[in-house]
Amino acid sequence: MPGRIELPSGLVTFMFTDIEGSTRLARMLGEAYRRVLGAHRAVLRAVFTDFDGVELLTEGDSFFVAFSSADAAVAACVEAQRRLSAYDWPRSDAVPRVRMGLHTGRAIPVGQEYASAEVHRAARVSAAAHGGQVLCSEATALAVTATHAAVAGGRAGAAAAATLATVDLLDLGAYRLRGFDDDERIFQVMAPGLERDFPRPRTAQAPRHNIPAEHSPFVGRRAELTELAELISHHRLVTVVGPGGSGKTRLTHAVSEQLLAAYPGGIWTIDAATASQGLPVALATALGLRPEPGRPMIDTLTEQCAERRMLVLLQTCDAAPALTAALAHRLLSRCRRLDIVATGRAPLALAGETVWRIPPLAPADAFALLRDRAAAALGGRLDDGDPQLARLAARLEGSPLAIQLAAARLRLLPAEQLARRLDDPLGALDNDAAGDGRHASLTNNLAWSYRTLGNRAAGLLRRLAVFAGPVELATVEWCDPEALGALSELADKSLIEVVPGPRYRMSDQVRAYALRQLAATGEEPAVRDLHLTWTLHTLDRVTVDTDDQVRAISLTELCPYVPEWQTALRWAAAAGNVPAGLRLATALEPWWLEHNEARAGRDLLATLYRHLPTAEAAAPPRAAVPDPGTASPATSPCAAGSRSGADFAAPASGPGAGSPSTVFTGVGATGTGLPARAPRNAVPLSAVDLVDACLVQARLTDDRAERDRFLAHAEAEAERSGEPWLLVRVRSARVTRPGDDPAAAEHDCREVIALADRHGVPHAALPAVLTLAELLWRREALTEAADLLGAARHVEAARPEDRGRRTVDWLLGMVALCRGDLVAAHDHLVVALRSRLRHGFRGAAADAVAAIAVRCALGGDPATAAVLFGGAEAAQGARRTESFGAFWSAHQASLRTALGDATFDAAYADGAGLGFDRIVAMALAVEHPDLEDGAARFAQMAR
């Protein structure tokens, strides 16, 4: 062995070299190869001597050399490549291309050799090089100091310093070396006189991640990808929190693929739900690390990851929350360049944690995902234009798991039928034969979360499930006065969503699961009774002001409460609580009529009416019925949506006993103003209850014979009560839909009005007054109609169920139109339109828009009139009565004649496409007739 025989010890840099393609070169040169090989050896040995390298082994065309200095080793490689390039070889195609590899590590010689894994690592680095290329490990790159004086003295040290001054190290990335489990960063030595461009190293590139390949494309969530990536770039620990099946894992995988370039150390994902040997072992396996004897795996992990710029994904943390939090804390504390993204149904509760709640899929994304998955489930046989598919997607609440299950269910049911079944999403989407995995069904998924709840939180979830929509904190505390901690647990575990207000919302899927648990515990009847009590209290709050004045019916104000009232009404109907059910039905009637839900209302009432015989038997033979002219507003039977004479009475003893509505005006146990808990069926039905039951059903039906039967029952009950105002009310309801004989209908209206006047209850006859005014308008008795309506103004203002519609003003506007008085017509119609719009009566507002269209036509603006007619017709409110329909049609025919078919049709279509809100704004923007053509009255005011 040439050179010194004393081997370096401690931190040693090992060099391996060999000739690339030596076999081919030997066969090509024959006997001449011996001279080439000898020259190659002489050049390299001279370099080793100049840089104090110790030659350990020579075998064929390869060398194994040890250096005490990494600087000297790198300089030797550079100088060797330069001398080989400069040598005068016998043939230009016979130049030996030598590959060289370096690695630095601690080694102690035993005799004249080293027994160290560092030697094998150096050999693997060399094997990865190409001919003419010098590669080194990360350890050698860190040990090289190219800018300072040589650490060794003498000629060799000076030569190394001079050479290293021109050297750069190019990071080629992480690679896997054969026989080693961990990754090795490999650097190429760059210097003048050396080749620069080579193929990728000749070894397997280290995996940069273990993100699994997905079976289906990632759909949507572009905004979420951007937002989450931005959070990860600024925070070391980001926890993605959301309910099961919301797509947390899929989203973090997708965002991780976008972030690979930012993490040279790779991105590694482990799942706490499947880490059977522990989280540290799962992460070590992903990184290619093996256990070290007598050393905890977490220590091996932190050592290997200490300086690596890497991202760790901890999935399903709620499967082992304490262990996951402990691992995250240890990694973040020991590995300063390591970031973590965790996913789970609850936060980890670590210092510095950034919690990001994954939102449901946006409607467009939900539809795109359903379309993609349904096409796969149906083998591509999918009608993309099917509007029912979009309606189905909207019912799935943006839940990726529900969408996946729905796509599979479309093999069995069309989208329309499946959407109708989603009132019970578990029954509609779950498969009884599904596996027991948490994502195999909605039930399994929700059971995973439910099992982790404490008793108080689980009980609160069951009680809140009977509410149809979001609830306020006061309502939650009414369900459980000490509910704040349980509510926090439900929110943390993504079973309750906190929405602005704040209010607390439960998804339909969670609600369906919680209701099943409620039924299983046997608590459902009691909990639903309490919900019914709460609902009746909200009914009082909405319909009565703080000063006990009954409010005008406003569908706008009712809108947030309608789902709760309908839920409570279904329970009242099923449980036979007729008084409570009738109160709710009376309040809901205008909503049903306005939103074309009369059939649903009739079905609920039909269920409720099955219990009427029992209720009638319990009722006193002659219930004392207060006259609405003398009753307080809070108990007036004419106050739609409030008592209608069917009040729950207070308990037989205690404060307020015997006083109507005492149960619902007190303060609950929590001091929040919510209702005390009252028993069902606190009082029997009164005559007003029975009359209301018949009148509501009569107004909801379009069948004339059925309507007449209900009205006959109502009249018989009113006559038995002996109360004149109640009889007037029923007979007034009879004439609100005049039949085919206008003269007979007019006679009936006058009789009802006269009866009301005789008994001093004119307010009860207002529907008859309005019907009579319409009949007079139809036969052009305009003066009498105007006088009748003028006298009815104060009556309408006193009736909460009517004053929001401003029907008197509406009819006065119609009378003014027929008289040609555009100023009066404009004033009355604008008042009616504003009031109807404010109170949510869209159909009646459309009538007012159509009337303003006539005002525009009569005022010389046919183009605006045609647009307004189109918008009113699109709202389906302008042809609700036969008389007005003929009126609109006549004026539209005149407009068509004036504008021409093409112009009228284009303007009409424009109005239909504008949307009702814009049409209303356009109608209200019509200029007052007194402002047109410089009217004298306004000109004088201006002066």
TrEMBL record:
GO terms for biological process: cyclic nucleotide biosynthetic process; intracellular signal transduction. One of its GO terms (molecular function) is adenylate cyclase activity. InterPro entries: A/G_cyclase, HTH_77, Nucleotide_cyclase, P-loop_NTPase. Gene3D superfamilies: Nucleotide cyclase (3.30.70.1230), P-loop containing nucleotide triphosphate hydrolases (3.40.50.300). Residues 617-658 are annotated as: Disordered. Residues 13-126 form the Guanylate cyclase domain. Pfam families: Guanylate_cyc, HTH_77. Residues 617-628, 649-658 have a biased composition (Low complexity). This is Transcriptional regulator. It comes from Actinoplanes utahensis. The lineage of its organism: Bacteria, Bacillati, Actinomycetota, Actinomycetes, Micromonosporales.
